[in-house]
């Protein structure tokens, strides 16, 4: 077999890498193999290959390209993504598993010869900043230049880390058969995680949530590792909140498409990451975190000059960006709710598109709701100076967001770390387009991480409890809900999240008081009034406050029952979790009896 770049391989002197290559060359049977290092030249090679292979097409603006996924591969595959487990291993109801031996046999059969006639690409990356206790090395094998181009944007290069190293994550991917640069054998799509060997096999897909090893696949391997080693690997953004000339770092876990990227991008603040954080204790007893990534694979729908001015500006100027599954006309990309009229025809993920077109009786929108952009965080004006700091940053607050139209108030602070873990473990969200399946269904999503959990929920919750208890200054825990409605209308403007963030920042520095309710602390009216005035020069009325922050005991009790039902069938949930649930129920029932079903926040003064 002719290996391009064999001298690079030799320079690594890595027996394990060489063995892996032999093994997968034999299995995948590529026509050629190319080993890539961190050089500009190799990155340029990949960019050009993605275009040559038709997986990307250049757009009008310099550096912009468009990639399309199959109409059936527009989100993460929840059915065929599985953890391989040995006989007798139980991971609980939330996690899809397959017997390890059977799964390996199946996926190796699908992968046998899948790269015939194709070029196998091999590259090395670093999850987390370089030279840091957070760094985890990862090796990627793929036949998709789009996957490697995405990884070159989203992750730090890691070739040098592999010199004689034998502990790393491995991702083996093939897009399978392509037509017009798009993979076609979707019915044979598989994403199988082999935790024992810290490797993932993913095949017959291109949507980055399924194909890009270092993203959601590495997230799962790292969750397994973190839970064995007592640190946290979370589906969280990491950002700096700026107030009074200081900067305070927050992480936030939101289910997909629930305002996570736009929270991380709140104007006037700084961003470290929008999706995945590793968090470890530091010597002074604080939590420290890093962004695992260095780029954003963000949802592009709704990015418009009014709601997300910074991202919009970045997306509409020349720089390296991969757009996916948007509408293109005359080499210009268009997406849903971008703040201007869209053309009535063009090309999108189904091919040639015209307004009003239907497929299987359903109208096809101009662009997919889960269409994405992929760019480096360093391209953003609000990039935080600590993006690559090997020490990470001190995290003072965790934010858990959900998507809930009728129950939770927009903002809440937990009564304690353990109560915060209970809040995080009870996140519910109405489903969106980021995962395949029906939209708008209320789903339990603990720490917004449920789709990536590979350890039993009980172990995961226990690890959170222990993590906070081990800190001298644990992060405060908050929850937000941007989606509260009354008579079908949202009760908050999209931009209100900036006020919530300023309040959380003030709470960290003990500058605002709060009202204690049965479900946690809520802001005082006067503080919000001042913040709305200061941040937006906007009047915030008592009526606004009352509508948004009333405690709906009946609905909250119903929600609590739903959560209890779910946890009843999970094994080994820490007693402390059940205690918090029971205490919250008692507090709610008490308040309901004394103050009524829907309680004005002013009653808690
Ligand atoms: C993502 C997701 O793409 O969570 O970040 O789906
Ligand atoms: Mn995500």
Which terms summarize this structure?
alpha+beta, globular, Phosphoenolpyruvate Carboxykinase, domain 1, Phosphoenolpyruvate Carboxykinase, domain 3, binds oxalic acid, binds manganese (II) ion, single chain, 605 residues, 3 domains, Phosphoenolpyruvate Carboxykinase, domain 2, 40 strands
Task: Describe the protein in words.
The model has no long low-confidence stretch (mean pLDDT 95). A hairpin with a 5-residue loop joins β19 and β20. The N and C termini lie far apart (75 Å). The chain has three domains: 3-56 and 74-229, Phosphoenolpyruvate Carboxykinase, domain 1, CATH 3.40.449.10; 233-293 and 387-604, Phosphoenolpyruvate Carboxykinase, domain 3, CATH 3.90.228.20; 297-379, Phosphoenolpyruvate Carboxykinase, domain 2, CATH 2.170.8. It is α+β, with helices and mostly antiparallel strands and 605 residues long. The chain has 16 helices and 40 strands. α10 (417-425) runs antiparallel to α11 (457-469), α10 (417-425) crosses α16 (575-595) and α12 (497-508) crosses α13 (525-536). Strands 1, 2, 5, 6, 7, 8, 9, 10, 13 and 14 form a ten-stranded mixed sheet that branches. The chain is globular. Bound molecules: oxalic acid (OXD) and manganese (II) ion (MN). Manganese (II) ion binds at residues 235, 256, 275. Residues 235, 256, 275 line the site of manganese (II) ion (MN).
């Amino acid at each position: 077999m002719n290996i391009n770049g064999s001298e690079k391989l030799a320079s690594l002197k890595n027996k394990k890498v060489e063995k892996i290559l032999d093994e997968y060359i034999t299995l995948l049977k590529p026509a050629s193999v190319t080993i890539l290092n961190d050089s500009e030249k190799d990155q340029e090679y990949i960019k050009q290959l993605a275009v040559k292979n038709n997986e990307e097409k250049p757009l009008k603006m310099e550096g912009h390209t468009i990639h399309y996924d199959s109409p059936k591969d527009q989100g993460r595959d929840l059915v065929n993504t599985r953890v391989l487990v040995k006989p007798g291993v139980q991971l609980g109801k939330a996690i899809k598993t397959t017997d390890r031996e059977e799964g390996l046999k199946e996926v190796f059969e699908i992968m046998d010869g899948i790269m015939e006639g194709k070029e196998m690409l091999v590259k090395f990356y670093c999850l987390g900043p370089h030279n840091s206790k957070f760094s985890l090395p990862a090796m990627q094998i793929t036949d998709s230049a789009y996957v490697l181009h995405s990884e070159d944007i989203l992750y730090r290069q890691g070739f040098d880390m592999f010199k004689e190293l034998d502990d790393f994550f491995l991702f083996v991917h093939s897009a399978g058969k392509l037509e017009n640069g798009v993979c076609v054998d979707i019915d044979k799509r598989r994403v199988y995680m082999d935790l024992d060997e810290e490797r993932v096999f993913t095949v017959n897909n291109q949507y980055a949530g399924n194909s890009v090893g270092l993203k959601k696949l590495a997230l799962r391997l790292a969750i397994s590792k973190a839970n064995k080693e007592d640190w946290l690997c979370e589906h969280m953004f990491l950002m700096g909140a700026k107030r009074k000339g200081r900067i305070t770092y927050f992480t936030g876990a939101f289910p997909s498409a629930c305002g996570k990227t736009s929270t991380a991008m709140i104007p006037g603040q700084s961003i470290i990451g929008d999706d995945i954080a590793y968090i470890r204790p530091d010597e002074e007893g604080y939590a420290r975190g890093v962004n695992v990534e260095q780029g954003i694979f963000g949802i592009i729908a709704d990015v418009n000059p009014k709601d997300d001015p910074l991202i919009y500006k970045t997306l509409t100027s020349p720089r390296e960006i991969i757009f996916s599954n948007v509408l293109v006309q005359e080499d210009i990309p268009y997406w849903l709710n971008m703040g201007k009229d869209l053309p009535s025809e063009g090309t999108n993920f189904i091919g040639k598109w015209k307004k009003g077109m239907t497929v299987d009786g359903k109208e096809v929108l101009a662009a997919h709701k889960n269409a994405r952009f992929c760019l480096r965080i360093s391209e953003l004006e609000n990039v935080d100076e600590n993006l690559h700091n090997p020490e990470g940053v001190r995290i003072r607050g965790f934010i858990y967001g959900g998507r809930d139209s009728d129950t939770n108030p927009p903002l809440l602070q937990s009564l304690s770390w353990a109560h915060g873990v209970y809040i995080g473990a009870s996140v519910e969200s109405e489903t969106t387009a980021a995962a395949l399946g029906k939209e708008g269904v209320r789903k339990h999503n603990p720490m917004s991480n449920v789709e990536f959990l590979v350890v039993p929920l009980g172990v995961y919750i226990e690890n959170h409890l222990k993590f906070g208890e081990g800190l001298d200054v644990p992060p405060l825990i908050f929850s937000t809900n941007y989606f509260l409605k009354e008579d079908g209308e949202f009760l908050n403007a999209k931009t209100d999240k900036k006020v919530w963030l300023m309040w959380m920042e003030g709470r960290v520095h003990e500058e605002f008081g709060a009202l204690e309710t049965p479900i946690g602390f809520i802001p005082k009216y006067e503080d919000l009034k001042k913040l709305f005035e200061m941040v937006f020069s906007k009047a915030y009325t008592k009526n606004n406050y009352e509508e948004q922050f009333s405690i709906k005991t009946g609905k909250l009790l119903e929600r609590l029952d739903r959560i209890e039902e779910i946890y009843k069938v999970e094994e080994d949930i820490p007693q402390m979790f059940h205690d918090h649930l029971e205490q919250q129920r008692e507090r709610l029932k008490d308040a309901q009896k004394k103050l009524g079903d829907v309680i004005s926040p002013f009653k808690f003064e």
